[in-house]
Each structure stands twice: as structure tokens, then as C-alpha cells.
Amino acid sequence: ILSQTGNKAGRALTALPTGPEFKLAPIRKNVLLRRRLRLPLPLGPRRCNGASCRALLDEYGDHWAACMKSGRVQRRAVPIENTVARIFREAGAVVRRNQKLRDMKLPGVQARDRRKIEVVASHLHLYHGMPIVCDVTLVSPLHADGQAKSRAAAAPGGVAITDIEAAKCQKYPELVRSETCKFLILAGEVGGRWSDTTCELLRNLAKEKSQSAPPRLRRSTAFAWENRWWGMLSVAAQNALAATLIDDAPHLLHAWEGIDPPLGVLLHGEAPTESRLPLR
Predict the structure, then answer these.
(1) Residues 41, 46, 49, 51: what is their CA dihedral angle, to the nearest 10 degrees?
(2) In terms of Cα–Cα distance, which of 231, 203, 222, 234 is closest to 263?
(3) Which of 66, 86, 124, 74 is nearest to 233 (CA)?
(4) Is the N end or the C end of the chain the one with fewer CB atoms within 10 Å?
(5) Could you list the pLDDT tens digit for every one of the 280 residues in the chain?
(6) Which has the closest alpha carbon to 12: 200, 238, 256, 252?
């Protein structure tokens, strides 16, 4: 429940379905709503597909949401990473994907180092023009056996995000210490909550993007871009999560590509004036 509260936790449910990047297939929307209500998911496999796991699956999808042996945690990251890359491109950045640390001229990185980073964005004014190096991750506040992680059931929320941020800083100490790039961990929880770092980044990208608009429209333009990008990111995350929980893999490993809309279309057609959920 705590994972379903906080920063933009319900954004996937309020995104207007104005394009394929904002749409949830009926079965995936069903999974999303059942997860939020803690109802059993639609029928699916009985055991985990991980060769070294083969555990019995629970009816709520908690095991596959956290099991690293099944490969589903890694697979669901791909559409989210693609969406983050698209957001950077729409903001005006030059984006490079899956860059190896050994090719980034970082002090202390050995030539045989196999670590890589998902998204590198440059040519922005943020952070004094330094390249922005992003690690994108979606984590569960529960272990694969359904038990809550330490403090996750008692703290106000975001414990899984805090833990993964600390783990990523330990994994990439060269990026944390670097004075030639800005390292950001864009972390979300499977319930929908996003980190403060992610919120700040999208807000800053929207402000920079809005500078090309007429002065009187800059505030509303920044709001519209931020709203658009939150819809894209939240829907991509929940789409990918639902697909891995119900074995809908053939339609998972993609992210919708496209061009950013003209300003008039953005302000008129994607403003958050209504929800995809009926109101009474």
C-alpha cells in the first residue's frame, strides 16, 4: 500500500490515452487495478520460469515482481529505459545508450570492466552543461517470497527506492565521484511511486524545454511537458510490469517511438483536464 502512494504513484491511471505511449492494453490495465486492490491476478503459469528457482508463484504477482532469477526484472527495465531516452530526446538532448564505463574516460575504471550505464544525455544546460548519466530501475518493496523488505511496511514509503539508490552508488563509485558528469539514479517502485531525483529531473527538463516558447506561455508549457513525460514514464513502467507478471512478453520489449508534438497540440490535447477513469 505504501508503495502505491507518494510521488506520481497513480499517474498511469490518469494519463489521457492520446497516443500509443499512453495506452494500457485491457489485460494489463486489469493487472494494474488488481495489484492496487490486492486481488488475485488473471490465470497464468504455476511455477517461476527461473531455472534455478522454479518456486510456486503467488496469486498477486509478488514473486515475479522481485525474482532476479526469472529474468523478468531485467526485461521490464528495457521499455522504461527506452522511454527515459525518448524523454531526453524530446527535451533536446543527444542520447547514447548502454555505454560501457571503460569507454567513458573515468579514472579508476579498468579496461576489462564490464559495467555499463543505460542512458547518457548531453547538450543540455542542466548541471552546468555536464553529461547526465542515468541508471534506470524499477524495484519491489517485497522480497520474492512476498515478505516486506526491512522497514518497508512501517516507514512512510520509498524504502525500496532508498535502498536501491544506496546500492547503485556502491556499484558505480566512479560516477558518484566524477567531476565530468552528473550521475542520476532514476528509481521507481512497482506500486507506482517515483524517487525525488526523478521528479526533480523531469521538472528541470520541462523548464529547459519551455524556454523556446513565448514568455507568456512558458509556465504552462513547462507544466504540459512535465505532464506528458510523467504519463509516458508511468504508463511504460506499469505496462512493462504487468506484461512480465502475466507472461505477455511478445508485446513487451519495445517502447513507442515518435516525435514530440507541436506546442499547440501539446497545450490543447495533452493537458490533464480529465482522467481515463470514470467519475461519479
Answers:
(1) 150
(2) 222
(3) 86
(4) C
(5) 888 988 899 999 999 888 888 988 899 999 999 999 999 999 888 999 999 999 999 999 999 999 999 999 998 999 999 999 999 999 999 999 999 999 998 988 998 999 999 999 999 999 999 999 999 999 999 999 989 998 888 877 789 999 999 999 999 999 999 999 999 999 999 999 999 999 999 999 999 999 989 999 999 999 999 999 999 999 999 999 999 998 876 555 555 666 678 777 777 665 444 444 554 4
(6) 238
Q: Are 136 and 157 in contact (CB under 8 A)?
A: no
CA 245 to CA 63: how far, in whole Å? 9
Q: Cell for 29?
A: 490495465
State the pTM of this model: 0.89
Contacts of 93 (CB under 8 A, 6+ apart): 121, 122, 123, 124, 132
